[in-house]
């Protein structure tokens, strides 16, 4: 891994931590709040590519597990990894990998609508399909109830998917994916 990629991984972990400073929006019917941090997950995937984005999100999860209050609302520590938000948090490295992988595949013909589609399926849907059932298991509710409750996240997550795609396409020239594409 090049130094530049390590710096990008660290910067995106820090960026996601900064997004955690935006206060969460609690929902009364589900124990998981709406946060801005999934924007950072999607942006990491479609800007950094699969390898660097995954490393960035693994770094973030490790820092949270070590107790740093990087999650929205100032949460951190091992308790987060066994609480209702555990599935969502642990899905982030996988989502970043999938978004990065799919983005790298379409990079030569990159278009905003393609990245939005990738962010929606590999980000929004994947994170909720992992997070909601884990939340349901931890809170002793039905998986179906968890999935129905997670529908509340869809409007905001779709907006975040569009924002991440627009930003990634606009800064394409400085993306590590672009650099790798020209080095072959």
Automatic annotation (TrEMBL):
InterPro entries: BioY. It is a multi-pass membrane protein. Pfam families: BioY. It is found in: Cell membrane. The keyword Cell membrane applies. The chain crosses the membrane at residues 52-71, 78-103, 115-138, 145-169. Gene3D superfamilies: 1.10.1760.20. Keywords: Cell membrane, Membrane, Transmembrane, Transmembrane helix, Transport. Belongs to the BioY family. This is Biotin transporter. It comes from Paenibacillus shirakamiensis.
